[in-house]
């Protein structure tokens, strides 16, 4: 097999080199993330985590607390909905400008792309921290932070989805003289609408989680309540809040499933494709958004005054010039390395666990497990894993892995369900055992989607790894949190800039990887 | 005996009866063409023979395997002896041609070999030989999404050649190929079956391809067998009766190659051939 050069696999050499290079790169990252599986089973740690979890029972159910809980839940929903509305307003025009879809020449818009990168590159929690200082404590900071970050994310993913569908219909329309917007509406949107809609709804779920986390920096909602409960080590209240949170996420999940099924129903046989359902949904959406803004009492006018503008100006000016001394840069560099290590290790562990959980096809116990994993935000997982393995990067990596396994498992399951069934079916009919029909038939069809999800999630995890330091899980976040609490704005500014640069570097790297794997 | 269907019926969950009281028997090494209008039940009949669907009435025996096709080890063994050429090639676009061809033997290989072959293709000469027979040896290490629809269809055929099944089923195997290539491909399948003493059952849209290459012709209409005759005894009036629902012209090979993707090709070709 190997003797005759003509019968040798020409790809084998580069594959081997690729595998070795991956190992060489991964090894120091695992070292930096201080991966020590043994710590998980350390009797001392087991005792601490056991004691903490025991405090969860029974969950707090007092009437007064339930009142607070209901109010905070509504506030969280409203922050997420208002933030998503803002994000959508930002995302649609930006995606249109940024995407190469429907263009006759594949020109990408570098200005819009870099603006999107800046919006996404700075984590929403950092935006929220900044806005809280400008606009004061309250939901306004959360809505703005969500709107900016998620606007950037949505725009990027919209642009990518439009680029990933078959371009031929839009190209044909353009050759027939249709303008670019119409070519996209008629040629690409019908193919992409399902994925676009399901991604938007999925993002709204993420927004709910994010608004909880932002409560930790004083932006209202369930997070603020959770922060208080955790600070007072009130396990009962924490358990109730977590439960409320899961119910929210499950409800959003059910809603998103219903919506996607509704998109699948063929349009009615009449001139207007919109029936009572789409009309009702549109109305509910508008009412929901208006109600959210009203509930939060965000006076948009007060945000647009001269005083607000000057206070923003002064605050921003305080961040310049950034501290670029060699000593500080060295510390930041170490933080970057640790952040990278946390994100890589966390994502890898999650990808393996997620794929294993996705294989049983989204059946009851597994879907419950996946939903539980992903409905608890990384930051909350980090507070728990820090108890289990001690403060440090390993806690961060584990927290990322737990949450991301839930997210990826769900996305993987969907991608596998959407993969073309014919190849796997044909192999089973040719006698292949189920597992191999999957490996040779189904997996290659789903692989681009799986890899895209994993890479995209890794990008998000780098940003998340930077934040996990806020609860002591290592990386850049720990530096930023210290410097901001000490009002060392010049040093904090360096960290924020480095976070942005890191995010841009990740963008480039993942775009390159995607091209290489195509 | 290669297969024996006795009073086989197939009723789908929605109540549609795709097959009604089909009795059909084939000896080892026979070469049978199924013809009939679209929607007559040719694909359903092939699905029953391929054990993809279990009949809802009657009994079906395929090779030496009787009655109901329940998923068992024995059924998987049986299936590795049946090779199917599908209407649309069921091959993932991102797979390399060599892997797609080798996948034909997943049912025969031990697990370690199937796994290892994902990392390094373990039978490159075998795959090359199979591809050579469909004139695609130069595409051995190409990726399937770099091939045209017709080339991909021939990769699907190469996979079945590589599998070396005892029963070859082909569901409109050449509807995505131009007439010259279609004829060559049908001849290849017939020759392969002849050389190895395998049974070949192919559903064909073009009547001329069927009559010119197969010894036995089975006409299917509305889920039932309309006739089952040696090719020489199938006359024009019989064919007109079979295709009565599709107009006056008999479907024959399209006179010029068409450039449609394989999924859409069938419908368009049907219409093109009938007008």
Describe the protein in words.
In chain A, α7 crosses α8 and α8 packs antiparallel against α10. Chain A has 518 residues and is an all-alpha fold. Chain A is 78% helix and 0% strand. Chain A folds into 2 domains: 228 residues, MetI-like (MetI-like fold); 253 residues, MetI-like (MetI-like fold, Orthogonal Bundle), CATH 1.10.3720. Chain B has a 6-stranded mixed β-sheet, with helices on both faces. A 3-stranded antiparallel β-sheet of chain B has the order 2-1-4, covered by helices on one side. Chain B has 10 helices and 9 strands. In chain B, α5 crosses α6. Chain B is of the alpha/beta class.
Task: Give descriptors for this structure.
heterodimer; A: 518 residues; mainly alpha; MetI-like fold; 2 domains; 21 helices; 78% helix; B: 275 residues; alpha/beta; Rossmann fold; six-stranded mixed β-sheet; 10 helices; 9 strands; 21% strand; globular; disordered C terminus
What is the string of SSEs of chain A from the N terminus onward? HHHHHHHHHHHHHHHHHHHHH
Write down the overall geometry of chain B. Answer: globular
Q: What is the CATH third-level topology name of the largest domain in chain B? A: Rossmann fold
- Round the Cα radius of gyration of chain B to an integer and report it: 18 Å
How does the major sheet of chain A shape up? none
CATH topology of the largest domain in chain A: MetI-like fold
Q: Which strand order do you get reading across the main beta sheet of chain B?
A: 5-6-7-3-8-9
What number of domains of chain B?
2
Structural domains of chain A: how many: 2
Query: What sort of overall outline of chain A do the alpha carbons produce when their principal axes are compared?
Result: globular
- Give me the secondary-structure category of chain A: mainly alpha
Strand tally of chain B is 9
Helix count of chain A equals: 21
- Give the second-level CATH assignment, the architecture of the largest domain in chain B: 3-Layer(aba) Sandwich
**Head-to-tail CA distance between termini of chain B:** 40 Å
Question: Portion of residues in helices of chain B?
Answer: 25-40%
CATH superfamily of the largest domain in chain A: MetI-like
* Distance from first to last alpha carbon of chain A: 28 Å
